[in-house]
Amino acid sequence: MKNKIKSVKGTYDLLPSEIYKWQEVENKLRSIFSLYNFLEIRTPIFEKSKLFSRSVGEFTDIVNKEMYSFLDKGKESLTLRPELTASVVRSYIEHNFQQISSIHKLWYYGPLFRQEKPQSGRYRQFYQFGAEIFGSAYPESDVELIDLAYTIYTKLGLKKWTLYINTLGKKENRNKYIGVLKESMLPYKDQLCKNCKNRFDKNILRLFDCKNRQCKKVMNEHAPLIINHLSVEEKDYFEEVKFILDKLNIKYEVDPTMVRGLDYYTNTIFEVRSENLGSQDALCGGGRYDNLVEDLGGNSTPAVGFAAGMERLLIAMEKEKLFKNESDKLDIFIAPMNENVRKKAIQIVKEIRYSGYSVDMDFQRRSVKAMMREANRKNAKYSIVIGENELQSGEINIKNMDSGKMETVKIDKINDFLST
Length: 420
Ligand code: ATP
Ligand code: MG
Hints:
By secondary structure, the chain is an alpha+beta fold. The chain contains 16 helices and 16 strands. The chain folds into two domains: 16-170 and 231-319, BirA Bifunctional Protein, domain 2, CATH 3.30.930; 330-419, Anticodon-binding domain (Rossmann fold). 40% of the residues lie in helices and 21% in strands. A hairpin with a 5-residue loop joins β3 and β4. The longest helix has 20 residues, at 16-35. The model has no long low-confidence stretch (mean pLDDT 94).
């Protein structure tokens, strides 16, 4: 038996038969980002490991369990990026963005890596697109970003999804609240699952995310909500965000138990969840992170951003049947009948390509019948069989593959024929 090498667990190939869907979505994303005047930024696939431990948070699942980290030959710890905000912030600081302008609106798109348990909608290499606004501490910018995400899902035609928002307050009050939460939940710690017991001291907010029924029940009954522990200023901020969302007719639900997996959020957080995705239902998540730029060594800069998964979006769009069949792309297939005409055929192919039509030809020296089957399989609009007679007369027969209709055209007039 031959020893075949398989792809790595949790990764997948995007085959030509599928990729047109990705390209369609990518194109729409680009055009929406430019409607909102966000500029693209691309950063490296790997970064120094400490970038992520310092930003995402040491006790988060991502940093704790999921990172692909390795020592390079210089014994430096590097990590395949598990998210993109940290990289964008690193770049923002490194290139002194702040000196160029006091506000920046950026978007990104690319693969990320997390070593988690692969399942539907959860991979070890996956794609995210996302956006960040640096330099505004006002609710208008939270809404600009939420509206951007909202518009993306709306314009892509998705129907079955809901936007959820919540607020985590600023760091100081959140830390106070975390103290209150620990105190209130301590008497019930024994009733929680093993995972939650582990998270209790280091990352207690994540108890709200546990899918375990018993944990859910205990949390529902006994956990105080953060909204009741915020300052007037933090509550007002949240009210203003909601007020502007209402003005823009953006539909949302407040989920007072929503927390996010990353440590750096402050005030507003939000998530878009699809009703079509089972338990991996989050399409996108984001929020405000006013301390991160400073935490990573930059000048204090307020910021807000979101990150969205591509695979889940594609699955949801497929479930809602939003993709048409791939449109035909090949204009002409050329079938040379024998050795003598092949060289001339290659020239004709090149000429027509240079005038802007897509052309393919036979590369296997097959029979006319086999070549015509190939033209059909390739969905060519026209096919041309070229033989000695055609070369002699300088005229070829162009066959319309849909109607079967043949038309005789001079070889040097093929372009004119195609353009009519
Ligand atoms: P989840 O709740 O699924 O674990 P998360 O809180 O880890 O998500 P973020 O880090 O905020 O998610 O990433 C934003 C989006 O990226 C998610 O809403 C999801 O659409 C997508 N995403 C996250 N992890 C994966 C993964 N392993 N495979 C595919 N998509 C993912
Ligand atoms: Mg996760």
